[in-house]
Design a protein that fits this description.
Elements: H1 7-19, E1 28-30, E2 58-61, H2 77-88, E3 99-101, H3 112-125, H4 142-151, E4 161-165, H5 168-178, E5 181-185, H6 202-217
Parallel strand pairs: 1-5, 2-3, 2-4, 4-5
Pfam families: PGP_phosphatase (PF09419)
InterPro entries: HAD-like_sf, HAD_sf, PGP_Pase, PGPP1/Gep4
GO molecular function: phosphatidylglycerophosphatase activity
């Protein structure tokens, strides 16, 4: 979803970019979802001075350009296989509601196409899709995500949640707002059979340049969850 169609998200992103730009950096970076390490916790930074790695019990997964090509619900077999490995991982196999798809298309509104996509994903993957509160799309839907995991007995600790997605301004930022961990899919969604085809849009590519400048040019790192 273009950032300009989500003005509250744009305002929040600009505020962070101006005053706390490191908050737009992810805690870990992978090329695509297919490279997500399992378990996830050991791949994240230590969260205290004793070097302790975070305990992860819940996963928030973006759809567009992370799980599927943008604005579709078309599932490639390699991603279905990867999701099964994630579901079988001890971090997430303890509760069938421990993995939640949060999209700014599927389930994001009552529009028939958004609800149809959400139901298709739930049916094909056996994973819940968050029905977002109107006006609270990513990165503003953190309260709804936290409430979902608490309601279903997954966790009530934001530091036990990791958000995986392709956008700094939505996926990484919602993790920051919740006090959770973030994993950035730098290349978005790629077809393993045609890996050179890039589905990223203008803003996604600009975010990639921003991330390289912040890390390589300025030596910044992502702050630990609040």
């Amino acid at each position: 979803m273009p950032l300009f169609s989500n003005l509250p998200a744009l305002r929040l992103t600009l505020a962070y970019a101006l005053h706390e730009p490191s908050s737009l950096l992810p805690h870990a970076t992978i090329p695509t979802l297919l490279f997500l390490p399992l378990p996830v916790g050991p791949s994240l930074p230590a969260w205290n001075r004793s070097g302790q790695k975070p305990t992860i019990r819940a996963l928030v997964l973006d759809k567009d350009n992370t799980l599927c090509p943008p604005e579709t619900a078309n599932l490639h077999q390699s991603y279905i296989d990867k999701l099964q490995k994630i579901k079988d991982s001890p971090e997430f196999s303890h509760n069938p509601k421990s993995i939640l798809i949060v999209s700014n298309t599927a389930g994001s509104s009552s529009a028939p196409e958004h609800e149809a996509e959400a139901k298709q994903l739930e049916l094909e993957l056996g994973l819940p899709v968050l029905r977002q509160t109107p006006g609270r799309k990513k990165p503003l839907c953190g309260p709804d995500i936290l409430a979902f995991f608490k309601e279903h007995g997954v966790t009530d600790n934001p530091r036990e949640i990791v958000v995986v997605g392709d956008r700094l301004a939505t996926d990484v930022l919602v993790a920051r707002e919740m006090g959770s961990w973030s994993v950035w899919c730098r290349n978005g969604w790629r077809n393993p059979e045609i890996p050179g085809r890039d589905f990223r849009g203008f803003f996604s590519k600009m975010e990639g340049r921003f991330e390289r400048l912040m890390r390589g040019g300025l030596g910044r790192t992502a702050p630990l969850p609040k």
